[in-house]
Amino acid sequence: GAVVSQHPSWVICKSGTSVKIECRSLDFQATTMFWYRQFPKQSLMLMATSNEGSKATYEQGVEKDKFLINHASLTLSTLTVTSAHPEDSSFYICSASPPGAGSYNEQFFGPGTRLTVL
Amino acid sequence: EDKVVQSPLSLVVHEGDTVTLNCSYEVTNFRSLLWYKQEKKAPTFLFMLTSSGIEKKSGRLSSILDKKELFSILNITATQTGDSAIYLCAVNNNDMRFGAGTRLTVKP
What we know:
The complex is a heterodimer.
Chain A: E1 4-7, E2 10-13, E3 19-25, E4 32-38, E5 44-51, E6 57-58, E7 67-73, E8 76-81, E9 90-97, E10 108-109, E11 113-117
Chain B: E1 3-7, E2 10-14, E3 19-26, E4 32-38, E5 44-49, E6 56-58, E7 61-66, E8 71-76, E9 85-92, E10 96-98, E11 102-107
Parallel strand pairs in B: 2-11
Antiparallel strand pairs in B: 1-3, 3-8, 4-5, 4-9, 6-7, 7-8, 9-10, 9-11
């Protein structure tokens, strides 16, 4: 149980295009999903918290209009990188929390998506 | 398809216990295996392993990689309540693949 999937696993796109990444909780309902981005030296940065049925909460420094998050159902959150540029190339990972989860250490992580912008 | 599997999914121990967390993988072009600790806003990097049989150690935490059997273990000795967290394993193979994490709860 507690499987989180991401699609696609990797994507290559041209500069200026938009890319959508899906995060799904396969066997549980997730009221909250998190989106992370990996930076050099292995660090992972929290980008935003996605709450089903409401607007996402973005971390400081993350452009809301650049990284659109939609949590339309209890099993799906999407991250759309709009007008992607080479500097957006990175590894994006999502995680999901079941209902009632009260802390950051009650998440299940997806396998991640590698975005390469040419 | 590349995959990273962590076990157990969840673990509850008492302070002072020693725990062993497992991470097995099936990937092509393996480069390295990474361990993270997730308790606050973002996972904290713990170890990166590239060679078999060489133990990496940091305080009460240690980790080792077996590239023949395709797994790594993370050991935590004399656990404390502050060790309660999700421990994430990831494999770098020209890409990155994360496991689902092991939720460790250390009770007083």
